[in-house]
Design a protein that fits this description.
single chain, 235 residues, alpha/beta, TIM Barrel, eight-stranded mixed β-sheet, 34% helix
């Protein structure tokens, strides 16, 4: 469930999975597919596998980009934290991901970051500068409070009203996926509650898409495909 993009020797399985994901995405009318990097193989060390896994990932991304371009789709790469979520996940920071994206050699490739604020805060913090630095490479934003991965308005480290204002000032016009473990009625259970925390502007800078995360990535839409769907609220 963590993907195979960077796992050496699993290129054929990655391509089979991509073909199936494209089939599902076309049926759903979904223009974006999350290309998951996968985990450092059990019994090996991250440092020893880093170069081989990076080369495998770039190889698979180039293949995926060609396939997705034919379908007018976009591939998304999500750095995930290795401190809480999965210590063996290969792609852990946007800094690492920037070196993996083959834009310099293939500028036409539609490969972008899926920037999850939860993971970014845990691994690096410095959210303002990271969003500003990597904004040209960001294709989707996800949010969840730190450290509990609950609703963005729950107690925690991240000031989401400020970050939403920052995204607006940067010109973000995409979706904000709310990927978190719900706490019940206290959280952002409705679009009305959520919209109270969004920037008050005369236009609509981005949609907010409620996407609760219930602890099982097999039930999480972003584990395979990201579909615009019908937004629950606007800002």
């Amino acid at each position: 469930m963590w993907g195979l993009g960077a796992v050496p020797g699993r290129q054929a399985a990655f391509r089979e999975g991509l073909a199936l994901a494209v089939k599902y995405a076309k049926t759903l009318g979904c223009p974006r597919i999350h290309l998951m990097a996968g985990r450092v193989p059990v019994g090996t060390e991250r440092a020893a596998m880093a170069l081989e896994m990076e080369a495998t990932f770039i190889e698979n991304l180039r293949y995926a980009a060609d396939i997705l371009a034919q379908e007018d789709m976009t591939g998304l790469l999500e750095p995930m934290n290795s401190r809480i979520t999965d210590p063996r996940y290969f792609l852990t920071t946007p800094h690492q991901g920037k070196g993996t994206l083959p834009h310099s050699d293939y500028p036409e490739l539609q490969l972008w970051f899926l920037q999850d604020i939860f993971h970014c805060q845990i691994m690096d913090g410095n959210l303002t500068r990271n969003l500003e630095m990597y904004f040209p490479l960001i294709g989707h934003i996800q949010v969840g409070q730190v450290p509990g991965r609950h609703e963005p308005n729950s107690p925690g480290e991240v000031n989401f009203p400020y970050l939403f204002q920052l995204l607006e000032s940067l010109g973000y016009e995409g979706y904000v996926g709310c990927e978190y473990t719900p706490q019940g009625e206290r959280g952002w259970s409705t679009g009305t509650q959520l919209s109270a925390h969004l920037p008050k502007t005369s236009h609509q800078p981005f949609w907010v898409w409620l996407q609760p995360f219930k602890g099982n990535r097999n039930n999480c839409a972003s584990a395979a495909c990201l579909s615009p769907g019908t937004p629950n609220s606007t800002g």
